[in-house]
Amino acid sequence: MNCEKSRELFADYVGEELASSEARELQMHLKSCQGCRQELALLSSTKSALRLALPEEPMPRRLAFSFTKPPKRTSWLGWLQGRSAWVTATACFVVCVASLALFRTQVRVGSAGFEVSFGQSSVIAPAPTPAGVPTVVTAEVRKEDVQRLIDDSLVQAQKSQDARFKKVALDLQEAWQTLRVQDLQQINAGLRYLEANQKSLVQDSARNSTFVQSLARNFYAKADAPGTIQ
Amino acid sequence: MGLVRLTDKDLAERVARGDGEAFNLLVGRWEQKLYNYALRLTGDREDAFDICQDTFVRAYEQIGQLQNPDKFSHWLFKIARNFCISLYREKKNLPRLEVDAESDPDVELERLLSGDSLIRIDNGQRYEPAELRLIVERALEQLSFEQRETVVLKVYEGLKFTEIAEIAACPVSTVKSRLYLGLNELKKILTKNERGAS
C-alpha cells in the first residue's frame, strides 16, 4: 500500500468503519511510513479534541406541542407511492370503473371489434326479455293494503328518526369527551413546560456562575503571572 | 403508559393519524439530539432552539409525506438540515458589522481566551474547557457547510457514512472525502492556534 491509498482509508479509520482486511494493510503501511502515521495520529486527536470541546448541552427549555389541526393528509398520488403494486392496481381498477360509470361509457362489441362511446347514447336498445315472462304485470290493489303500507312506512320513518337522534346524541357526547381529554392534555403539557423551564433556569444560573468563576480564576492567574498584563 | 414502549415508527404512524400525545413523545425522544445538532452547525443557542422548534412543527405538518417511518430520525435531521442551510445562506448574505474590538467585551474575552491557549491537540495536555470550546466553535465556523455538517454527524452523532449520505443526499465517497478534508482543515486551524499560543 502506498501513501495515497493509505490516506483514502483515513476517513474510514477516524469514522470507525474500517474493514478488518483494510485495517491490516493500513497497519502494515503505517509501520513503515512516519508521515502517514503522524497525520493519522493528528486527525484522531483532532477528533478527540472536538468531542471534548463541545459536549452535549441540555435544551434551554423543553418543547411541548399542542396542535389543533391533525397533520395534512398526503395527496392521492403520494398515497399510491407508498403502497404495494397490488394495492396500486386495485385502486387504479376502482378509479377506472368509477370513471366508466360517471361518464356513461358504452362499450359495444361486434364482429369488427369493439367500440367505446361516452355520454348519453341517442338510441338505447331495450333489454332482451326472456321467453315466457310477461313484460307488464298488473294487479288489483285494495284500500286496506294501501293503509297498511302507509302505516308500515310511518313506523319505519319513526324508527329511523329515533336511530338518527340516538346517533347524534352519541356523537355529541364523544366529541365532548375528546375536547375534555384534549384540554387536559394541554394543561398537562403546559405544566410540564413550566416545570422544565424552572429546572433549566436553575441549571443555567449554576452553569453561568461556574463559567464566571473559571473566567475570573483564569484572569487573576494571568494577572498574577509576572509580565503578562501591564 | 403503553406509548412509551412504542418505536419511532409506531409513534410516527400514530401521529399521521392525528395523535398529538404520540408526537410529543417523539419530541421528547429527539429534541436534545436535534438541538445539539443545530447548535454545532449554527454555533448559536437561540438559532439552534428556533431551528429545533421549526423542525418539529414542519415534521408534524408533513408527517403524511414520510415514506419510510422506520427512518423517522433521519427524516427529522434532513428537515433540520434544510433550516440550517437557509439560516447559513441568510447569514452569509448579511453584511458583516465592523465591530470595534476594544469596545466589545465579547471580542476582548475571546481574544483573552484564545491569545495564550493551553490547547495541545497532539498529546491532550492542559486546556480550559471554555477556551477549547471557543476555539473549536470558531474553527468549525471556518469549514464549508457540507464539511461542518459531515463532521458534526460523524463525530458527535456517531452516524454511519451511509446514513450521513442519505441525510446530505450525496454519495458515500463524497461523505468520506468531506470528513477527511474537514478534519484536516480543523487540524490545521487548531495546530496553528497552538503554535500561535506557544
Structural overview:
The complex is a heterodimer of chains A (230) and B (198). Chain A is mainly alpha-helical. Among the domains of chain A are: 1-48, no CATH class; 76-119, no CATH class. Chain A has helices at residues 3-8, 10-14, 20-32, 34-53, 76-81, 85-102, 143-224, and strands at residues 106-110, 113-117. Chain A has a two-stranded antiparallel ribbon with strand order 1-2. In chain A, strand 1 (106-110) and strand 2 (113-117) form a beta hairpin. The longest helix of chain A has 82 residues, at 143-224. Chain A is elongated and about 120 Å long. Mean pLDDT of chain A is 75; it is low at 121-127 and 132-138. Chain B is mainly alpha-helical and 198 residues long. Chain B has two domains: 2-93, Orthogonal Bundle (Rna Polymerase Sigma Factor, Chain: A), CATH 1.10.1740.10; 105-197, Arc Repressor Mutant, subunit A, CATH 1.10.10.10. Chain B is 72% helix and 0% strand. Chain B contains nine helices and no strands. In chain B, 36% of the residues are buried. At the A-B interface, helix 2, helix 4 and helix 7 of A face helix 2, helix 3, helix 5, helix 6 and helix 7 of B.
